[in-house]
Each structure stands twice: as C-alpha cells, then as structure tokens.
Specification:
Structural class: mainly alpha
Largest sheet: none
Family: Belongs to the multi antimicrobial extrusion (MATE) (TC 2.A.66.1) family.
Membrane topology: Multi-pass membrane protein
Main location: membrane
Distance between the termini: 33 Å
Radius of gyration: 23 Å
GO molecular function: antiporter activity; xenobiotic transmembrane transporter activity
Strand content: under 5%
Keywords: Membrane, Transmembrane, Transmembrane helix
Helix content: over 70%
C-alpha cells in the first residue's frame, strides 16, 4: 500500500463525472493529485515510508511546471536584452536610449501588468483544482478587460515619456532618443494585457510547455526581424522597439490559437462570455493588490541602483552594482519559475480540497529552490575574482564586484526562498496582506537602513545593499512565519468561499 502507483489509481473526480479517456491532461494530473493526498492521509503507513512516494509525485508535478516556466521567463528576458544589443550597435546614444526605455519605463509596465495578472493565477488555480473549469475562461476575459483598460493611462505616460524623463533629470539628447524608442513599445503594453492573463490561465492547468515552445519560436523570429528592420530597413531605434512589440503579439496570438484549438483547453475555454463584464470592480481590487505586491518588489531593487548613482564615486558603484544585479537577474528567473510552480500547485490543491497536499507542496518546492540557490551562490563565490570579466575588462570594477560578491551570494540564497513564498501567497490569495508586508519591510526598513549605512556611515554601494537586504530578509522571515503557522484546512474553506463569490454561485461544470 506504500507505492505511489497504488495511491495514484484513486481518482480525484467523482465516478459519476470521470474525464474522457481521450483527455489525458485531466486524467493524469488529477490522478497524481489524488494519489498525493491519499499518501499523506494514510496513517496506517509510517510517515517515513510515505515520504518517498509523496516526494516523487510532487517532484514530477513541480518539474513539469517549473522547468518550462523558467524557459518562458528567460526567453522574455533575452528578447528585451537582444533589442538592447541591436540598438547598442547603432551607437552609444541609441544604447543609452534603449537601456533607459527598457529598464526605466518598460519594466514598470511589465511589473504592473504581470502583477495584475496574478489575480487570475489565484482564481484560475483554485477553480481548476475544484473542477469548475468553465470559470477559467471567464476569469481570463475579466483580467484581459481590466489590464487593457490599465493600458490606456500607461499609453499616455509613454506618449509623454520625454518630458517625464527630462523632469527626472535625464539629458535632453538621451530623453529625446529614449522617447522614440518608447513610442514603439506602446503596442507591447496591450500585448502584456492579453499575454499575462493567458499565461496564468494556462499555468493554472499545468500547461506550461507549449508557452515555452511558442516563446522559443518567437525569439528566433524576433532576432531575424530585428536584424531586418534595424539594419536593412534602416528604421533604427523605432524599428527595434516596434519589432519587440510585434514579437510579443506573435506570442499572444500563438497562445490564443493554442487555447482555442487544443483539446486540453476544451473545458476551460468555452468562448467569449458577457459574464466577463460582471464583477469588474471587485476583480480590480484583487488585481490591484496583486500589482502592488509585485511592483513594490520590482521597484525596490531599481531604487538600489538609483541610490548608488548618488554616491560620491557613482561610476564604479553603478558598474559593479549593474554587473551584480544582472547576474542576480538571470538567477532570479529560476526562482520566478518556482514561484509560478508554487502558486499553481498550492491553488490547485486548495481548490481540490487537499490541505495536506498543499502544505507538502510548499515544503518540497521551498527546499528544492533553496538547494539550487545555495549551489549557485557557492559557484558565484568561487568565481568572485573573475566573474566581472564577462562584462568588462576593468580591474577596478572587477575588484569592486569581487567585494560585492558575498552580498550577491546572500541575495541569491534569499531569492531561493522569498519568491517561492510569494508564489504560495498568490496561490492562497494573500496578495493584500503581502503588499502591506512589502511596504513595511522594504520601504519602512530596507531603504532607510540602506541610506543610513551607505551615506551616513559612508559604506557606499555595499552599505546601501546591506541595508536593503535587511528589508528583504525581514520580509522573508515574516512570510516563513506566516506560512509555517498556516491552517491549511482553513485555507481550503477560504478557497471554497472565494470561488463561490467569484463564480456568482454557479454550480460546478458538469461534462457530458
């Protein structure tokens, strides 16, 4: 009775409503989830004998979620970087303009839209676990409507990017060039508005690999089109940013075609519905809380770089911090993949009324992410004296980077835990609470402490980073404490109440 296969034969769905044999995605996933809960609940078998089969089931579920998610986020990251590289070959001014447009303006829209899309992650994940499949399509449409409306004020900000940049102290020459680049990113805003709800809609069903394949194909097309439009057609900065926008729309269209045509989505996508226009104000509240939660984290680390620019010798500080944050950004993509996996697993299990599976999933994904981050941190420390030469040949910068590497390694370890716990928070629907925690820890403790250590105690970039890292550690400790003390049976009940509220008291979808 102790094997994973024995347990996995017990179906999650009631015998009166079994999934069709042709729809293997529902069958295999739900059987695995039911098997996990059965193993964890079977007190007739010692826990140490149940631990192996349970861990194996959870590991397989996490791997199929996290690995493709990491690929998707890495490819998105590479697409923006490649646009910067193409722009950089036009000249130093173009490189500065593209960098400012990408990291200063576009990242704001990206964080806002991705954060708002997390509301879909909570609701779709829990509805899918509960077997209320038709509601996923409604949530997808509601979120797309709200994000598209949010895109309107963002578009206005993009149009007036030049005076905004001048107000922030940028030189007129760079602000002028950056505004041209930003104009070409306006279509990308609305691609985000559709893409992130679609992405969360698919992730909630553990459909992640198709998005990875689509993103990989779009990256190849993006590189070819960038070369054609920027160099051959001579469209310059505007051509580079328009190509990036077009590439995002290619991803959106391909994913939507997949949803409409795929057998795996035939129960969750049932066409456009007027129900999508109901309950938008309440849906906006959850989306706004999700956006605030994510944006507060995104802006926090941008402020680190901005503060470094105010130091007495800003060039070396900015160069060394830029290298460290770039390395951290690449590693962070792995954590984001685990963040998505944690959110999907927890929300699915809560919706399916499997409290033990939800709690067990949190432990497994956190431990796995932590182990990987520790390994990467050790590698960074081993290469601390040479790692900067991948970016620059300057010995002074190399010494500064080597000096910051212990902090970089500690940040990588913390990022192996914190994003996963944020994913758990999204899966449970705790976005509003975590937003308050982020405000207190990041902006009430981290930034003031960083300013004191960096400027008052004259510790420079290292002092700023240490202080802000203190805020991150405090936030992580609070999330760990809350997660450890969570009553998962209560969370199951809360998930049920949330689904009843958001589906307008409709009955679960019954399949023929």
């Amino acid at each position: 009775m102790g094997s994973a296969n024995d347990y996995a034969r017990q179906p999650l769905l009631p015998p009166s409503d079994p999934p069709p044999s042709s729809d293997q995605s529902f069958s295999s996933k739900h059987h695995s989830n039911a098997g996990l809960e059965s193993i964890l609940s079977d007190t007739s078998v010692p826990f140490r004998r149940r631990l192996g089969p349970a861990t194996w089931i959870e590991f397989k579920l996490l791997f199929h979620l996290a690995a493709p998610a990491v690929v998707v986020y890495l490819i998105n990251y590479v697409m923006s970087m490649s646009t910067q590289i193409f722009s950089g070959h036009l000249g130093n001014l173009e490189l500065a303009a593209a960098s400012l447009g990408n990291t200063g303006i576009q990242i704001f829209a990206y964080g806002l839209m991705l954060g708002m899309g997390s509301a879909v992650e909570t609701l779709c994940g829990q509805a899918y676990g509960a077997g209320k499949y038709e509601m996923l399509g409604v949530y997808l449409q509601r979120s797309t409507i709200l994000l598209s409306l949010t895109g309107i004020p963002l578009t206005i900000a993009y149009v007036f990017s030049k005076p905004i940049l001048l107000l922030l102290g940028e030189s007129p020459r760079i602000a002028s060039a950056a505004s041209v680049f930003v104009f070409g990113l306006i279509p990308q805003i609305f691609a985000y508005a559709v893409n992130f709800p679609i992405q969360k809609f698919l992730q909630a069903q553990s459909i992640v690999a198709p998005s990875a394949y689509i993103s990989a194909g779009a990256l190849v097309v993006h590189l070819v089109l960038s070369w054609v439009f920027v160099y051959k057609a001579g469209l310059g900065l505007l051509g580079a940013s328009l190509t990036l926008s077009l590439s995002w729309w290619i991803i959106v269209i391909a994913q939507f075609v997949y949803i409409v045509k795929s057998e795996r989505c035939k129960y969750t996508w049932q066409g456009f519905s007027m129900q999508a226009f109901s309950g938008l104000p309440e849906f906006f509240k959850l989306s706004a809380a999700s956006a605030v939660m994510l944006c507060l984290e995104t802006w926090y680390f941008q402020i680190l770089v901005l503060l470094a620019g105010l130091l007495p010798n800003p060039e070396i500080a900015l160069d060394s911090l830029s290298i460290c944050t770039t390395i951290s950004g690449w590693v962070f993509m792995i954590s984001v993949g685990f963040n998505a996996a944690a959110s999907v697993r927890v929300s699915n299990e809560l919706g399916a009324r499997n409290p033990k599976s939800a709690a067990f999933s949190v432990v497994v994904v956190t431990v796995l992410s932590f182990i990987i981050s520790v390994i990467v941190a050790v590698v960074v420390l081993m290469l601390r004296d040479v790692i900067s030469y991948a970016f620059t040949e300057g010995e002074v910068v190399a010494a500064a980077v080597s000096d910051l590497c212990p902090l970089l390694a500690l940040s990588i370890v913390i990022n192996g835990i914190q994003p996963v716990l944020s994913g758990v928070a999204v899966g449970c629907g705790w976005q509003t609470f975590v937003a308050y925690v982020n405000v207190g820890c990041y902006y009430g403790v981290g930034i003031p402490l960083g300013c004191v250590m960096g400027f008052v105690f004259k510790l420079g970039a290292k002092g700023i980073w240490v202080g802000m890292l203190g805020g991150t550690i405090m936030q992580t400790i609070i999330l760990v404490w809350i997660t450890v003390r969570t009553d998962w049976n209560k969370e199951v009940e809360e998930a049920g109440k949330r689904l009843n509220k958001w589906e307008d008291q409709k009955e679960p979808h019954q399949r023929n």
